[in-house]
């Protein structure tokens, strides 16, 4: 066996390929999200996000009505003031960005009171009705004197429905919609998959179904959290065992803090000892039991001559684990060739073959 060179880097982190979906932009979903997912997601809401901005066509019509220059107005919460004049002249003087000529600059701001006065002015003007009848695309609702357009249907993204059903525990919906998803292992913009959702919401029936359907049990989110990390952070031994025995990688590490699933077990919560001891036991036995057989759960291309290439599902035999000073690389054999493999990209058991391929 070759000695591990001093310049050998730490074992690689598998970079997740993220499929972008606008799923967790809804603040209500964030409030109802299970604790493990909340730990992984950051959401900052703008202070002005709760306010409705004036639509551009209404704003332009307003300035035409008042005879003032157009500008990009934003709505800002300010203490109400008593205008010295009424009507559009009062709005001019109260506007924060008004110039001496009575015109607004591009960064002019309307207060709530000014905004209400502007809407009241528009409601008494034929301009509002003109705006609502502008030419352009129409909705699917039936209008007076017009027949409903035929063949128009609203269709939601199947993956978004799968993510939602997995989080809400809708088993029948998961079984139905998963047939319409090209790849049920795909994720949202945080890298979170349907399996992440089902685990964190403690829906064991859905978890078992997704695993047996062949979704990727090692799919990492944007910080490297795999479903096994989520199950371990819940101290859910039943789900942890199910994931490990179907190809879950116990040495997978997160990106920010480089922690394995065992290190994510919650010490202050019930079930910690059983979950932590089980994961540590698997770590010790892996590469020893079953004649040292391990399976690739990611694809790895060798960067040095003394490393082995492997892909998801490849079988290898560990000949020697790393020394005390270097445990992230194991010496193994594959197809008659020997070399180093990164331990955080292999598992004790093979993954379930996907049914959707």
TrEMBL record:
<dbReference type="InterPro" id="IPR001452">
    <property type="entry name" value="SH3_domain"/>
</dbReference>
<dbReference type="InterPro" id="IPR036770">
    <property type="entry name" value="Ankyrin_rpt-contain_sf"/>
</dbReference>
<keyword id="KW-0040">ANK repeat</keyword>
<dbReference type="InterPro" id="IPR002110">
    <property type="entry name" value="Ankyrin_rpt"/>
</dbReference>
<dbReference type="Pfam" id="PF07653">
    <property type="entry name" value="SH3_2"/>
</dbReference>
<keyword id="KW-0053">Apoptosis</keyword>
<dbReference type="GO" id="GO:0002039">
    <property type="term" value="F:p53 binding"/>
</dbReference>
<dbReference type="GO" id="GO:0006915">
    <property type="term" value="P:apoptotic process"/>
</dbReference>
<protein>
    <submittedName>
        <fullName>Putative apoptosis-stimulating of p53 protein 1</fullName>
    </submittedName>
</protein>
<feature type="region of interest" description="Disordered">
    <location>
        <begin position="68"/>
        <end position="104"/>
    </location>
</feature>
<keyword id="KW-0728">SH3 domain</keyword>
<keyword id="KW-0539">Nucleus</keyword>
<feature type="domain" description="SH3">
    <location>
        <begin position="289"/>
        <end position="351"/>
    </location>
</feature>
<dbReference type="Pfam" id="PF12796">
    <property type="entry name" value="Ank_2"/>
</dbReference>
<feature type="region of interest" description="Disordered">
    <location>
        <begin position="128"/>
        <end position="147"/>
    </location>
</feature>
<dbReference type="InterPro" id="IPR036028">
    <property type="entry name" value="SH3-like_dom_sf"/>
</dbReference>
<keyword id="KW-0677">Repeat</keyword>
<feature type="repeat" description="ANK">
    <location>
        <begin position="223"/>
        <end position="247"/>
    </location>
</feature>
<dbReference type="GO" id="GO:0042981">
    <property type="term" value="P:regulation of apoptotic process"/>
</dbReference>
<feature type="repeat" description="ANK">
    <location>
        <begin position="190"/>
        <end position="222"/>
    </location>
</feature>
<dbReference type="InterPro" id="IPR047163">
    <property type="entry name" value="ASPP1/2"/>
</dbReference>
<dbReference type="GO" id="GO:0005634">
    <property type="term" value="C:nucleus"/>
</dbReference>
């Amino acid at each position: 066996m070759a000695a591990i060179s001093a310049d050998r880097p730490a074992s690689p982190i598998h970079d997740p390929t993220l499929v972008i979906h606008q799923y967790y932009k809804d603040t209500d979903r964030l409030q109802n999200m299970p604790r493990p997912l909340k730990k992984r997601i950051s959401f900052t809401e703008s202070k002005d996000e709760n306010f409705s901005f004036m639509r551009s066509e209404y704003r332009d019509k307003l300035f035409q009505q008042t005879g003032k220059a157009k500008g990009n107005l934003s709505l800002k919460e300010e203490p109400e003031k008593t205008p010295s004049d009424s009507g559009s002249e009062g709005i001019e003087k109260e506007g924060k960005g008004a110039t001496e000529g009575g015109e607004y600059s591009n960064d002019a701001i309307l207060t709530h009171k000014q905004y209400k006065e502007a809407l009241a002015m528009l409601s008494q003007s034929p301009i509002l009705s003109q705006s609502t009848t502008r030419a352009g695309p129409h909705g699917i609702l039936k209008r007076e004197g017009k027949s409903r357009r035929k063949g128009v249907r609203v269709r939601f993204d199947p993956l978004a429905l799968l993510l939602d059903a997995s989080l809400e525990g809708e088993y029948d919906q998961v079984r139905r919609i998963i047939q319409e998803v090209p790849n049920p292992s795909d994720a949202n913009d945080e890298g979170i998959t349907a399996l992440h959702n089902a685990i964190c919401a403690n829906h064991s029936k859905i978890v078992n179904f997704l695993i047996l359907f062949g979704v990727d049990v090692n799919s990492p989110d944007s910080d490297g959290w795999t479903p096994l990390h989520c199950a371990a952070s819940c101290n859910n031994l039943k789900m942890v065992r199910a994931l490990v025995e179907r190809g879950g990688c116990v040495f997978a590490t997160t990106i920010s803090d480089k922690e394995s699933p065992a290190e994510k077990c919650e010490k202050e919560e019930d079930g910690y000892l059983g979950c932590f001891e089980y994961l540590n036991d698997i770590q010790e036995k892996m590469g020893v039991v079953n004649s040292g057989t391990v399976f690739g759960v990611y694809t790895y291309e060798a960067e040095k001559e003394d490393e082995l290439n492997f892909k998801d599902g490849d079988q290898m035999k560990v000949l020697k684990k790393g020394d005390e000073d270097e445990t992230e690389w194991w010496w193994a054999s594959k197809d008659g060739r020997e070399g180093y493999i990164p331990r955080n990209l292999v598992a004790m058991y093979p993954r379930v073959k996907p049914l959707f391929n």
